[in-house]
UniProtKB/TrEMBL annotation:
<dbReference type="InterPro" id="IPR000792">
    <property type="entry name" value="Tscrpt_reg_LuxR_C"/>
</dbReference>
<keyword id="KW-0804">Transcription</keyword>
<dbReference type="GO" id="GO:0003677">
    <property type="term" value="F:DNA binding"/>
</dbReference>
<dbReference type="InterPro" id="IPR016032">
    <property type="entry name" value="Sig_transdc_resp-reg_C-effctor"/>
</dbReference>
<dbReference type="Pfam" id="PF00196">
    <property type="entry name" value="GerE"/>
</dbReference>
<protein>
    <submittedName>
        <fullName>Response regulator transcription factor</fullName>
    </submittedName>
</protein>
<dbReference type="InterPro" id="IPR029016">
    <property type="entry name" value="GAF-like_dom_sf"/>
</dbReference>
<keyword id="KW-0805">Transcription regulation</keyword>
<keyword id="KW-0238">DNA-binding</keyword>
<feature type="domain" description="HTH luxR-type">
    <location>
        <begin position="217"/>
        <end position="282"/>
    </location>
</feature>
<dbReference type="InterPro" id="IPR036388">
    <property type="entry name" value="WH-like_DNA-bd_sf"/>
</dbReference>
<dbReference type="GO" id="GO:0006355">
    <property type="term" value="P:regulation of DNA-templated transcription"/>
</dbReference>
Amino acid sequence: MPVPSAIELVLTRLAPALPSWRSVAGTNLAFGSIVDPESGTGRILCVVGAKTQALNNLEIVTGTGLGGRALALSRPTSVARYESARGITHHYDHAVRSENLVTAAAVPIVVDGRPRAVVYLCSTAELSLGDRWFDALDPLRRRLQHEILVEDAVHARLAQMATQVPPQSGPGAAELAAVVRELGDLSEELADPAVAARLELIRQRLGGGPSVRRGAVLPDGTQLTRREMQVLVEAARGHTNRQIAEHLGLLPNTVKSYLQDLMRKLGCANRVQAIAYARDAGWIG
């Protein structure tokens, strides 16, 4: 799997999100600039609602224009009347005039302390952008930042695997188990079902087996936790407590404790009975 560049990675998350930003903001236009991690400059690479091509591929230097100011301050910035606004430079007035924009806001997307993008929301009529307007956008901002953070972790791990494992030899059992466990955790965090499914397939190809994403509720209302179900599934595969501990990143005594708890909840005297109960209930194959 090719590892995307930092810019491509952000673009895959930002572009599909722009229609939602535009809808929540109630503006005519939404566009996004993505920050080059090496130069620190932004470039507008995705636009929704534009009438011209003036904004496409426009380079935004930190500190210049509304977006550059938002990047420099690392916080949202807005102007009610762009043409007469003070406190920002007017390097990009030609593009703004081409779209007849009046009110504009810029929301920086900061991940792990680094600016990665700016979302612009603009209207051809004057709008009053107060705290409630920005508060409505905050869930979108936090979601986008989280998705980029998870994508960073996924692709960093895949890149590390590609460079660390020599073609003639494979990773050790402990390292393989750690990779399987990490891919499972990351796939559950991703909002994109397609990417999550690809990670899950990779995890299974590495020997992880189908993942356990939830616990189970017994007829009496007692609940098995997701972790207890994971331990039970591993036990059903014939693994010892030590092997289960390695696969799930636990201590053997912790695995023993989970098994005792789940057997008590199921009313089973031993793990064989617990596995049979789970199979009869259709929890495991």
